[in-house]
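If you are new to this repository, start here. Below is one unmodified record pulled from the training split, so you can see the exact layout before writing a loader.
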Amino acid sequence: MKKENYKIDEFGEVFTSKREVNEMVDMINNETNRLDSTFLEPACGDGNFLSEVLNRKLKLIGSYKSSLKIDFQINIFKAASSLYGIDIQNENVEKCRIRLLKKIIKFYEKEYLKDVEFEAVIKFVLERNILLGDALTLRHPIDNTPIVFSQWSILSEYQVKRLDYSFKSILNTSEMQSLPLFSDLGEQAFIPEPISQFDIVHFLKIKNYE
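And here is the target side for that same chain:
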């Protein structure tokens, strides 16, 4: 059996064309024009939808007129930290993370030289936001632990507060009773108590609090 047919039979995975992706993202284009508007793809595959949302957010960043490197970085951080995905196949999760990271690095290096520290920060965020899990059971498909997402609240002077929430607790809020393709995990959605919270830290230092 071909690998593609196996994925369809075993996981119900279906390829979505670029045209269809663009048409669907066009429907929520007003949200992609906000860096802090969050998106959840509960069966993200290798990132077709999240990649297109990121394209539009990076285009928005490119239209800004700040000459400060730190402002360019924090805006990219906002875009990356706004994207959430779940997939039941580890191969897809890895591909999605790599795809988004490569897109961000390519965008960044059009303006600035390679920055290993900043690249590591974005990689860390994607590892916390794009997760292996079953969106139906709300758990990890192998060890059965709960799916846990991080929320990144950006404060003044480039400071970030990380709060971790179980996916189940997010879905229990009134805003998330039904799960659309893209879900806005905004401030109101994060009503439940976090299961973990971390010290406020400069966004370039978030890996110090893994």
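Two things worth knowing about this chain: Confidence is low (pLDDT under 50) at residues 174-190. The chain has one domain: 36-209.
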